[in-house]
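Structural prep section.
Before we set up the soaks we want a predicted structure of the protein with NAP in place, mainly to decide which crystallisation condition to try first. Input record follows.
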Amino acid sequence: MDPTAVTAAPGGASLEGRDALVCGASEGIGRASAMALAARGANVCLLSRRRDVLEALRDQLPRVHGAQSHRFIAADVSRTDALRDALASLVGARPIQILVNNTAGPAGGAAHSADPEAYVAVFRQHLVAGQVLVQALLPGMRAGRWGRIVNIISTSVKEPIANLGVSNTVRGAVAGWAKTLATELGPDGITVNNVLPGYTRTQRLAQILAGRAAATGKPEQAIAEAMLATVPAGRFAEADEIASAVAFLCSPEAGYINGINLPVDGGRTRSL
Ligand SMILES: NC(=O)c1ccc[n+]([C@@H]2O[C@H](COP(=O)([O-])OP(=O)(O)OC[C@H]3O[C@@H](n4cnc5c(N)ncnc54)[C@H](OP(=O)(O)O)[C@@H]3O)[C@@H](O)[C@H]2O)c1
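Run finished without errors. Recording the tokens verbatim:
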């Protein structure tokens, strides 16, 4: 039997014995993903900038079997040299087979009027950081001939979103990078996939609603209703719903899913 094929029982502690690094873990989709992976038995390492939040969250993560332990690392992914050093210590202590590559979304605005340096900064935070993360974890994944890389990006890789010019651009770059990695790393038993969240109730969505209300003078309720009119499901997603897709792509059962963009958007994306 192929050693990369499914070996664990579905559900329950199917990630027992696996280590996961979840980035952007202190809030929103990252936090929910950390919870979901821990609930499936993974040892989770939380990464974001706020040490105090991470320390408290580490102690709240589920422990579903006796050997499970969680850790955290406070780091700014846009400081890629420091990130590389911190990751070397982390994987030196224990290799990591699962990466949830996630950080805050770029600021809004048109593409044509964006400061050129904004593109540089966002590429560093989203693409260069991702490359540093993958290069740090890859030896451990390859050694075990098993790995999962899930990037949290956006439906804009299928349909660019108005007034998110810099974001649309970097998301497309990350999608191209991920697809290339999927091809390169598939022979090592490593899958690379992207989750594309729709409107999800996190502090990022709250900021977007407040920003649009301020820019237009309309009440937030009216802005939210206009957004929801584009969503067949008729509601915003909960972060847990995005996390369920992330956890599935990280599971043994998803071992033959590689190189995809998975919208979790209540049907909002209209393209095939
Ligand atoms: N929510 C939505 O509706 C939606 C829709 C489509 C796409 N997305 C995308 O999905 C991703 C996650 O969204 P979200 O709504 O969960 O965001 P969020 O609630 O704003 O959380 C962002 C997380 O990233 C961390 N972070 C931010 N900057 C960082 C940095 N430089 N280094 C390390 N960690 C950093 C934050 O923690 P610290 O402050 O502790 O660092 C926080 O844990 C984003 O790329 C977003 O654009 C979201």
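Observations: Residues 24-30, 48-50, 53, 76-78, 102-105, 125, 152, 154, 197, 199-200, 202-205 surround NAP (CB under 6 Å).
Flagged for discussion at group meeting.
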